[in-house]
Amino acid sequence: MDMIKGLIPGVDPQDFTHGAPVNLSRRSVLRGALGIGAGAMVLGFGLPSGTARAQAAATMAPGSNVPAFLEIRPDSTVRLLSPFVEGGQGIFTGMAQIIGEELDADPSSFIVENAPAGADYLVIGGQMRITGGSMSVRMSYPLMRKLGASARAMLITAAADQLQVPASELTTEPGVVIHAGSNRRIAYGDLATAAFDLPVPDPETVALRDPATFRWIRQPVKRLDVYDKSTGRAEYSIDVTVDGMLHGAVQHAPRLGLMVETIRNRDQVAALPGVHAVEILDGAVAVVAQRWWTAKRAVEALEVDWVEGTDLPKGWRALPADFSSDAFAQELAAATGPETEAEAHGDAPGVLDAAQTVISATYHSQYLHHAQLEPPSTLARFNPDGTLDLWLPNQAPEQYQAAVAGLTGLEPAQINIHSPILGGFFGRHFLYPAASAYPQAIELARRTGRPVKVIWTREQEFLRDPMRPMAAVRFRGTLDDNGMPLAIEAVSATEGPTEAVYGHGDSVDETAVEGLSKKAYAIPNLRIAQVYVENPVMLAYWRSVGNSMNDFFYESFLDELANAGGQDPLALRKHLLRDTPRLTKLLEAVVDLSGGWKRGPFTAEDGSMRARGIGMASPFGSEAAAIAEVSIENGQVRVHDIWEVLDPGAIVNPMLVRQQIRGAAALGLSQVLMEEARWDKGEPVARNYDMYSILPPDQMPEIHVGILESGAPIGGVGEPPLPAVPPAVANAVAALTGKPVRRMPLSRLRFDS
Amino acid sequence: MQLNINGQTHEVDADADTPLLWVLRDNLGMTGTKFGCGLAQCGACSVLVDGQVTRSCVTTVDMLEGTEITTIEAIEQDDVGARVVEKWVEHQVPQCGYCQSGQVMAATALLKEVAQPTEEDVRAAMINLCRCGTYNYIKAAIDDLSGRKGEPL
Ligand code: FES
Ligand code: FES
Description:
CATH superfamily of the largest domain in chain A: Aldehyde oxidase/xanthine dehydrogenase, molybdopterin binding domain
CATH topology of the largest domain in chain B: Ubiquitin-like (UB roll)
CATH class of the largest domain in chain A: Alpha Beta
Distance between the termini of chain A: 53 Å
Number of strands of chain A: 27
CATH class of the largest domain in chain B: Alpha Beta
Number of helices of chain B: 5
Oligomer: heterodimer
Distance between the termini of chain B: 47 Å
Largest interface: A-B, 62 and 56 residues
Bound molecules: FE2/S2 (inorganic) cluster
Structural class of chain A: alpha+beta
Largest sheet of chain B: 5 strands, mixed
Helix content of chain A: 25-40%
Shape of chain A: globular
Number of strands of chain B: 5
Strand content of chain A: 15-25%
Strand content of chain B: 5-15%
Radius of gyration of chain B: 15 Å
Strand order of the largest sheet of chain A: 9-10-7-17-14-15-16
């Protein structure tokens, strides 16, 4: 449990669960996931499912109830209900590899969907389930292997029964049980009905494969979803329809905290053709119509008078009318509240106060949008039996189920959470107040008596997307006689996403300081602290969380110290990591990948002046190092190449890991080059991609990728490649221009070409 | 009004100024074409109109009578489109996949116009956004389709 706490620091896993027993039979669980009418296709199961089995499901340890996860169809296709949601990271394929390896079924024979909410799927420490924190594989790997092995054992038992031979005489090949003695073979598809009626064996007793004999784990198995995603067949929340459905569009209050006073033209708009209803919601107006475009046009035509709300829903922050993110950045830089220490050894303040020369600098990060390409939506349908179906993008089905139970008064078991694949997430679809369309869709479905799908426009999304926090970090550093860092102090004025969402406590919020704290460098005197400053805007997790900005701060300041001491930044890092073989090796690997270290400035073949920078990070149990090569073109930074090596300890699929490194590097690059969500006069300046730039294809450098498997405990993959990239770029720019880069994004700065 | 989509004539009951995107998605249930920005910024909604890549979120249906519209649903019925899909799969381009309908449409339009586009052609034509950062993979797939096969990523 502490381990889990450490992964989402400060968050008790209980927060993610509703605590109430989930009282669904396995069949209804599966039916829920399949959609009505599909139950007849669940051929792997004996029908009807007995009460005995349903009870067993409720009492078995999460992650072990084979029939809740797996169905084997007559053609031996394996249908897996994944405990983790697919949002681009390839987890469906990874799960098929891990389970298929032990089940002895080719991952390509898998069909994977997201599991519904339910106790069987709380596979992270048996306590909770979220898709985030780069946890999916590392937290479930042993459990999912055992699940596959248990299913295989059940198939063998069923085959032994059918063939009337001892189970010990049976073996398997992919998709088939074999009795070598009599040369008989039975396909899994012919055994599944009998097999999955058997009791599930104790997962601790099943034999696992010798990793030396793995056929799919560690192989570049092709993604299961690319064909559907290349032909428009993949279905996201925004695509789901049900019979009798109406469409909803909303206009949010320009500032969170404002409520509707009046709609001046409500009757006129309600009378427009195709409009079904005009409704007032918390901090929003909505139009329900036959078609979404009609609803959208109508809701934008509403003339609304807004007033300051008095009784805001839980967790909403009323944004001041004069809020400006630039002014807030200044406020952070000057903040002097109590400092909570995150890490300290030696006597950094004493050494710094006594030092003759102190290098000091204040660094800034910016607010960021998630900017996932699929805008939020929710489809809500109340059913005649009193249950509620919800289709919505989410990274935490049980958490949403509990919240909806609180909102509606329904029992969690009456709420079916459907989790279609995500059109990107990056932290966007955790449960944040005011940030999801589900309360609106539920309320509109309740009022209209019809299923309603609410889709937010990009503009409405950018009004309610919670921000990656910003920080101002005050550094002080001093050097020893050899020009090596003797003391570093970093005080970050910020608010972490965890304390923003779950409440500020006495201890430091790890998600605020990770990446400043827990760096591996041997600095004799170190102090990392946080000054808590509550943000007026809503905050959220963003891919790689605190590391997304903190490694930029630390690694860039480290280069400032290297310069001050006349040290080469690579040599300095090697020196500070001399007692950490894993990171020494990582540094060497990234340098090799880049063809040898050359910092520059140097003249490239095309005549441009270029330089390289290096950055490192240790996020989510993995280690990353990146080198970037830059030049200045038309006053702006151009990144030509990035070389990055990731050491996640051990991997499941090198192809997926390479994809994640390139994708995360692109997002890190986007952040350092151009992204910034600015607020002025209480409103976001950008409401769409025209004003909020994200990395376009013509600014994407080639990302050269390396993977190291050090054998350390398995770490995360989806987020860890991001944080090393911004400092690598910033340090390259500093090397080229001779001036430190102390704020993101670089587009705020002009450079001389 | 009548729209010719994927070789079929559809009788469409929609206001003249409705963007094609919403007619496809809501009136016709063709949800392969995606909504990302509604402002001609991202390209997720790309379709072909008379072979030209077109952002359907800002193209109203009244402008489209008498044209031939191709959407992602029919992309494999086109020889070039089928090759693009094949290479998208081979190079494992999609991550979340949300932008990929538009990317495949843009690549198909480019390759229908120029069988062997130069790198400069590719840069000019492939401008759709991808938040998952699949750009290196998109480039690898198109380079392959253009006869410039590099190392697989
Ligand atoms: S949705 Fe049309 S360009 Fe973005
Ligand atoms: S694959 Fe996710 S936005 Fe492109």
